[in-house]
Amino acid sequence: MKKVKIFGKTIPVTLIAILLASGLATAGLLTYYAKITATINVEQAVKLDGKSMPESEITETVNGVAGSQIDGELHYLTNANPEKDAIVSLDSQCISGPDGCDGLTVTPKFRLDAIVGESNDDLHVIPTTGTWSEFQSVSFDYFITEDSVNTKTPHVNIALRDSDGNAVCLLVSNEIESTKGEWKTATFSKADMESGSQIPLVDGGCDDLDSLTYNSITIEVTDGWGLVQEGQQQIVWVKNVKVNDATTSWFRVPNANYGNEQARTVHFVMEYDFDIASKGGEYTVETKVTPHGVYTQGGVWSPKG
Questions:
Q1: Predicted local confidence at residue 8, as pLDDT
Q2: pTM listed for this prediction
């Protein structure tokens, strides 16, 4: 019988063959102790017209005359997430025109509804975060439709937060008498906001306004308290929101548990504004719903993180 020496000991070759066959002599290092393989189906949170990608890639064709504002079709955004608002923007790019895209401006235009028996509708915009001492004004263009009963401007709500990020004071502006059927601009200054309703959310919450911060501004139709009553019906279009004269294009799509369906649905059209010198022909514009983060509810709809 042939024998070999291993570690100074003489071992029959046949025994080594048996050990190799059993695997006892060649146990290598483990590559892993255990393994879990999961298949996870995720529903897209923000949907356009109730559809996710790629079904939400919608094509529309509209017609008009140079020198006028031409509205696209009515669309809506919803958010299936049960807790977090999505922060998005509507970003447009002209892809082609008869001789370039000169003379064309594209602007999102939001529809706010006040329906009897429902909560009032609102638009939540996200400005650059600042302290109340730095706040100057919020302005927006608005159009009250002819079939509206209420002819007052939308009002503005601003939740102010302490250094820990807690909402401690809510400022609610007064409404301004207006007229129907024409585009106008509403401007609410710092003094306008402070002369409206100051609602402390904690004891002393509104005592030192200038030390507080803000990072969301709400534009709301009707008076804002309770359900819409007879005589308050209103449909208002809003566009070109500015805070401290800076355009604010980010806005929130409320979560699936926010208010009623109307309050958590963002209705909009894209407005195509052509200069009267624009060339005739076919223009192609692409608008994307761009994500920018989340806004979690706390206190009076205040963001955290």
A1: 53
A2: 0.85
Domain ranges of the chain: 64-296
Report yes or no: 299 and 162 within 8 Å, Cβ to Cβ. Answer: no
Residue 211 sits at φ, ψ, to 5 deg, of -85, -10
3-class SS of residue 176: coil
Q: Is residue 28 a contact partner of residue 20, using CB atoms and an 8 Å limit? A: no
Q: Are 206 and 198 in contact (CB under 8 A)?
A: yes
Give the CA distances from residue 243 to residues 156, 210, 211, 217, 273, in Å, rounded to whole numbers and listed in that order: 12, 17, 18, 9, 23
Q: Which residue has the tokens 């963001």?
A: 303
Would the pLDDT of 128 be above 90?
no
Q: Are 259 and 161 in contact (CB under 8 A)?
A: no
pLDDT digits (tens, 9 = 90+) for 226-274: 788 898 999 999 999 999 999 999 999 999 998 888 889 999 999 999 9
- Pinpoint the alpha helices (H) of 135-198: 190-195
How wide is the angle at C-alpha 60 spanned by C-alphas 56 and 66, nearest 5°?
145
258-265 contacts at long range (C-beta below 8 A, 24 or more positions apart):
258/85, 258/297, 258/301, 259/119, 260/118, 260/119, 262/113, 262/115, 262/118, 262/119, 262/121, 263/119, 263/120, 263/121, 263/122, 264/78, 264/79, 265/76, 265/77, 265/78
Cα distances from 30 to residues 25, 27, 33, 35, in angstroms, run: 15, 9, 7, 12
According to DSSP, the β-strands at 75-79 and 246-247 are unpaired
Give the mean pLDDT of 52-56: 86
